Please model this.
Amino acid sequence: DYLSLSSSSSIDSILWSNGSTNDRISVDSSGQYWVYAINNHGCEFRDSVYINIKGERPHIEPHYSTACDGYPVQFSDFSVAVPPDQIAYSSWVIGSDTISSQNTNYIFPNAGEHNIYLKVVTDSLCWADTSFTIHVYANPVAEFTPLEGCQHDTIHFTSLSSSIDGAITSYQWTIFDSLYLGTEIYKSFADTGEYELVHYVSTEHGCFDSIVQKIIIKPSPIVDFYFTNSCEEDIIIFNSNIEYPSYYSVINTLWDFGDSTGSSIANPSHIYSSAGSYMVSFSAKLINGCENKIIKILDVYPKPTAGFTYDSACTNKPVTFTDTTTDAISSIWNINNELFYGKNIEYIFPDTGSYDVYLYALNDYGCSDTAWQEVIVHSAPVASMNIDPEYGNPPLEVSFSTNSTGTNYFWDFGDMNSDTGSNVSHIYNSEGIYNVFLVVSNEYTCSDTAYGTVYLLPSILDLQILEINFVDSITLLQPEVVIYNNSTRPVKKIKLDFGFDYPNEFVYFWNSKLEIGEVERIKLPLLLNTDEERTSFCVKATAIDVLDQNDANIDDNILCTSLSNTLYIMKLFKSFDYLNLWINIPSDGQFFCSLINVLGQTMFKSEVIEANRGMNQFKIPILNLTSGIYMLQINYNGNILTKKFDLIGH
Model:
């Protein structure tokens, strides 16, 4: 405890019995204590007192919890008395309230500074007291945004909480019984409706606040889109699909084609200038502000680069069109409104003029391209040649000329020699048959080729008449002579003398070319009535273009055939279910006929037939025969005559 000096006048100096000069001294033991003092007037006075110590002053030690506005503050008295004394009671003065309790809770009416007084008394009536000030902290204010969002969107919740009394050190969020920490969180909601979100904050002083808000989740549209074939430089159609509640409406659509371009219409079209992979997005926004987006990868495939070349285009000559397109699996040509398929084709233009030629090329991605060219078709020359002479013995100078109109003439003489010009000559030094050709071309590189032959051989002329036949001509018969050129040179003109019994009634001139070793069937301009009775028919053949040479074997130039004493078939033809046979019988007699197939099987054999001399007509049934090749066999008095015929399609 303490002894203090009090006076009504000002004290200039003090002296205590323990030598202290302070206003008060500590009393530690029982005994006599005195004080000597001089005031400001120089007056002296003295006083003394006997102090009897009953006990020691307690050690006072108040404690309190964090003080937050609106929340109880725990005041605790941890004071200790000096044994053998004990604390008798404690008294708190808080604001205008006096509380006689060692420990107490107190709610302050407001934040700020508040004075506290505590007095502690022991059972020996020794006491101690203390006064102090505590600060009641203001609570933070919990707040966040937003209070609504869109279905399927990731919503960014941000704390707007504030504190005027200490920093906020803890942010907590509770939703769906899950706890999240931080000043912001991200959350998405699969379904629409109302959801409860709790936000709790606390400061560095332990003061806190929380808020519970209803979060409204609005419906978002469900979006999708589709597209057609994707080839570069082609129009690609995009079709959108948007699903949303009927009481809403779409207020905005947006496309991003992935090539720095876009569109705001629902179903746009777009052309990509180059191939590649593009990230295409489509979004739609409803009137409630909610939108949704979908992203797809669009592969734009390269298209082929169609192209073609062609050689000179000339009338009536094949023009070769060559497809130069790369990476194409299909090529379609359109020439003069005719379609052709294949990479390379040939086409013959019927006339001169301008023609549009198109090539459609398709690759394995299904992408196509079209090439077009205007083709000018020019007239081609008509090549011809004149050879004089065509025959001879080496050495032989031959003149070659042409009546063709052109700008270039190329002759190949067939002996590894050639020349140019419209009229040329050449000397052959060796025997042989030389095939000559002439190529005539004009200023448009159109060309034509003519062919000829030069014969340098020992010239032998020998025409042979092999046989005379009679062919059906309506109801009459026309003679046909078969001639063989057994010469060593071609024959171009043949005179045919013919008649009944002697070849001197009629004349026919044949003008063509009968090559060496060739056979020619020549129908004579004469019709025979089958009822006429003639004994024989004769033909004589004479080469009239070889005036410098006689026929080597004149005997085989003439041939006669009997019309009455010869068994021969004059006519054989099919009529419905019968085979009509017209046959000349030399004299009255019997004969029978058979039909034999290609396997040698006899399919039909007639009975013995009585026939009169001359022309006879018979019908042979063929109803039961199948299609195929057959042989008609006639047996007359031991003489056998055969004739092949077909029943194809029977």
User: Anything to note?
Assistant: The radius of gyration is 68 Å. The chain has a mean pLDDT of 90.
